[in-house]
């Protein structure tokens, strides 16, 4: 009976974590570039009751979390009409850098392409991080009458005389294992050795065999129907495990009453 109580406790803890994951997914259903998370469980060690007989007699001791992964499937694209709103139509991430960090440091990956241009002509994120080109340098488009970003990820500046100049190419990085990235907040990811042993390697969209959509944003890949279904499962699982504890307590109470 004590084993059943501890098993119920482990189940309640796990389903509470599952509800936390689901709640975070739902709260970011409209977050640009957000990637949902999923959690899986596994059983704990089993206690041997007897070694006799043809098959081992074992009783499980509950469950524990096995993995908590980020689903990096692409979200749906939403048209905004803003020329600096970009989306990657394929694999890869934009590379941005904290302007206060040392050169080569403070770099992050993101799928959120809601960029703007500052008064100084820098292409930056909503947090003010510089968007990097394929050469690893911040993209600056000051000194041009107008600019545009084509499907190849090239930033084209138009001069007063009508000449067009390729200012830079949007840098794209594709980690070998995107699930190994660490969430930093603000739809940013930190590179880790688990994601890519070679660190951030930037190339052009053409080199990465992908395209850049201008005037569009990639929305969250959270599916509310799926999340609400998983929420019901987690709720029922939590209730069932709590019932296990309640039933075990009632049985223990009956055992105590035998003395009377």
UniProtKB/TrEMBL annotation:
Residue span, Flagellar basal body rod protein N-terminal domain: 5-35
Q: Where in the cell is it found?
A: Bacterial flagellum basal body
- Keywords annotated in UniProt: Bacterial flagellum, Cell projection, Cilium, Flagellum
One Pfam family it belongs to = LlgE_F_G_D1
InterPro entries in the record, alphabetically?
Flag_bb_rod_N, Flagellar_basal_body_rod_CS, Flagellar_FlgE/F/G, Flg_bb/hook_C_dom, FlgE/F/G-like, LlgE_F_G-like_D1
- Please verify whether the record's keywords include Protein biosynthesis: no
Output the SUPFAM superfamilies linked to this UniProt entry: Flagellar hook protein flgE (SSF117143)
Its family remark reads: Belongs to the flagella basal body rod proteins family.
Query: What is this protein identified as?
Result: Flagellar hook protein FlgE
Taxonomic path: Bacteria, Bacillati, Bacillota, Bacilli, Bacillales
